[in-house]
């Protein structure tokens, strides 16, 4: 008769854990953003600021520390050109005129040909020139510029490269601002004054919304359909949601710290908020007044600027672009994520379709 062999308890626990691991699928790094590419930006140790997208597949990255705008081709995954610009901070590409507009911390707006990258004009605003936006309906480029009493939002004609008479003085340097596509308002973050200014371009009036509880409001995005404005506050670190009809705060959620960009995804009803703390806060818009943190996507420390592109064409994909600065042993990179329906939303649509439909969310894709 053979003697019984006893198995140590620690080994039994190890076997059990291994069996559970084999039965359960691995947990994905992210269920809402899938990293599809990391394009290297070699020899770029300088600070990376905002950037612009060309629907044809180019990304224009403002690298403040290196006095340049890197032109990255997403299809080949390479930096194809370098445009010399002193301390570039923000840019917008206007496809219908084939022009790139770049704001400089030195106080100028530089205008480049979108094919040859040659300088075709410049406008001196005599003060910190930062965020740049394009209003396709009005055919105007809007520029945030200056410090102090003369700071504000100015308009430029993209056809002629000339500054227009339309201008709104705000009394402090404007950070991120958003334009209504179906209306006439411009929402502007003014962190130095602890407020948001709302410009009515038709009436020429300016409303002032205080931001004293949630300060250092730098990042901003707009959900025009639901009349919601999303603001990234740094002190304390919060995603703040305001009603654009009243200016009242309807929600405030803890978020990643040190955010400089904020993007609203109307397709999946999500808000993407990268931050220098080292991750992307992804928020789920359950309804106009209901939000929750969906997940924290771990990118890299210091990655605070980003851009979002909705699907172009039937075969396109919703993409989120993130600038990752150089870190120990690795070059700076442009990370490209593909947005997809999160696992939590898929589960809700299957288990509680009536609740999903009450949110006004599309269900036809599944």
TrEMBL record:
Superkingdom of the organism of origin: Bacteria
Signal sequence segment: 1-21
Keywords carried by this UniProt record: Signal
Residue intervals passing through the bilayer: none
Coiled-coil positions: none
InterPro entries in the cross-refs: Haem_d1_sf (IPR011048), Host-pathogen_enzymatic-act (IPR051200), WD40/YVTN_repeat-like_dom_sf (IPR015943)
Protein name: YncE family protein
